[in-house]
Specification:
mainly alpha, about 90 residues, about 60% helix, 3 helices
Length: about 90
């Protein structure tokens, strides 16, 4: 293959892809930021699409942490989201 040629989808890889290292510190910082934002909010801090995205992604990222840390975070997230949704009505 020449220097500028793109590999074919069917070319075999010379070595298998390495598993990604999960940066739990960064995930923890991000999740705690979301929780602080929710705790401090008197109304929903995000528009509907962002709130929906947070509802999908927060538990996914939280579950990358140890269960004893993730479960309380998810429970608090759900409580705060329910509180803010009730205020919006």
């Amino acid at each position: 293959m020449g220097a500028m040629e793109q590999p074919s989808l069917f070319d075999s890889l010379k070595e298998p892809a390495k598993p990604r290292v999960i940066n739990t510190r960064r995930i923890r910082v991000s999740l705690n930021y979301v929780l602080r934002t929710l705790r401090a909010a008197e109304i929903m801090p995000w528009h509907a699409a962002e709130a929906a995205s947070q509802e999908v992604n927060f538990p996914i990222y939280a579950r990358l942490l140890p269960a004893e840390e993730a479960e309380p975070m998810i429970a608090e997230f759900e409580r705060e989201m329910a509180r803010l949704r009730a205020v919006g009505r």
